[in-house]
């Protein structure tokens, strides 16, 4: 009926096969229920990851075409999760035209689009409403949020997300990161990555920002020096541990896997030196390692 009726005014096909091109989700996370307390301390990023979620960050401001690609990933991935659940349960494929209530329940993953600026056409097209400063939610059925980096408040709760920004806001985020105590979780996550990927690769500063940028650069360079010193220390410890194992091998002393792991895991140079001196003259492993019965 539909085919014949529409054929009066349209070119009509039936049973059209839909082929989904391979896509990659930028970041997909499934929350660990045992770590809810830690997630609660993560600010906005923790709020955005309370359920299975796809994160799609953009360097610029995406339009409808790019966001539709993200929606396609979301729908295709949910279909794949359902397929895997059925396979794990030994269920047959359901009729596509039915709800199939007996099939395993699979949470529909949320989609979080991270945008540098406000994507007006996207917000209008999908009926987004403000949820909080810098965060917009689409109509419930889409399970989609847009985070606008340029609109996020300058608070610790938004820091890790603001480090995905650029220009002045990126430098502000760097300054906020530098001001945190050394044990802050944000530093443990962000600082090694920023050093590795050279934070200076972002667009150059303007004249009025030179002073604060120089201060931030000095902090990162000091961190990098400490990081390299720690790497050199670890390298020397590994060499010393290998020397202990070599001495034991020369003495014909067997080293079980547990003892080998203990030697390789030791980082104290004085302990490794003591073990090496003992290994040179030892006749058993117990004479070398402290506390080995």
Q: In DSSP terms, counting alpha (H) and pi (I) runs of 4 or more, how many helices?
A: 11
How much of the sequence is in beta strands?
A: 5-15%
Shape: extended
Main sheet summary: 6 strands, mixed
> Roughly what percent helix?
40-55%
Strand line-up in the sheet with most strands: 1-2-3-6-5-4
Secondary structure: number of strands:
6
Low-pLDDT runs: 200-212
What is the succession of H and E elements? HEHHEHEHEEEHHHHHH
Overview of this structure, please?
The structure is a single chain. Helices cover 47% and strands 9% of the residues. It is of the alpha/beta class. Strands 1-2-3-6-5-4 form a six-stranded mixed sheet, with helices on one face. Strand 4 and strand 5 form a beta hairpin. The longest helix is centred in the C-terminal third of the chain and has 41 residues, at 210-250. The termini are far apart. The relative contact order is 0.07. The model is unreliable at 200-212 (pLDDT under 50).
């Amino acid at each position: 009926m539909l085919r014949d009726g529409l054929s009066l005014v349209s070119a009509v096909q039936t049973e059209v096969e839909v082929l989904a091109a391979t896509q990659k989700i930028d970041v997909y996370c499934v929350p660990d229920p045992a770590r809810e307390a830690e997630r609660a301390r993560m600010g906005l990023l923790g709020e955005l990851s309370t359920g299975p979620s796809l994160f799609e960050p953009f360097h610029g401001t995406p339009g409808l075409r790019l966001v539709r690609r993200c929606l396609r990933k979301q729908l295709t991935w949910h279909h794949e999760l359902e397929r895997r659940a059925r396979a794990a349960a030994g269920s047959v494929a359901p009729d596509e035209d039915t709800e199939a209530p007996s099939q395993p329940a699979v949470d529909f993953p949320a989609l979080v689009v991270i945008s540098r600026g406000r994507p007006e056409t996207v917000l209008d097209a999908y009926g987004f409403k403000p949820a909080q400063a810098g965060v917009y939610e689409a109509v419930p059925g889409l399970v989609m949020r847009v985070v606008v980096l340029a609109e996020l408040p300058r608070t610790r709760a938004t820091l890790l997300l603001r480090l995905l920004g650029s220009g002045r806001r990126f430098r502000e985020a760097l300054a906020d990161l530098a001001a945190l105590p050394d044990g802050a979780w944000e530093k443990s996550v962000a600082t090694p990555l920023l050093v590795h990927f050279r934070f200076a690769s972002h667009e150059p500063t303007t004249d009025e920002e030179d002073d604060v940028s120089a201060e931030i650069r000095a902090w990162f360079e000091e961190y990098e020096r400490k990081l390299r010193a720690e790497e050199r220390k670890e390298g020397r410890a590994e060499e010393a541990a290998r020397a202990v194992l070599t001495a034991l091998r020369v003495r014909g002393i067997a080293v079980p896997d547990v003892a080998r792991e203990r030697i390789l895991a030791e980082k104290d140079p004085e302990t490794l030196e003591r073990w090496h001196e003992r290994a040179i003259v030892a006749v058993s492993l117990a004479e070398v390692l402290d506390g080995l019965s």
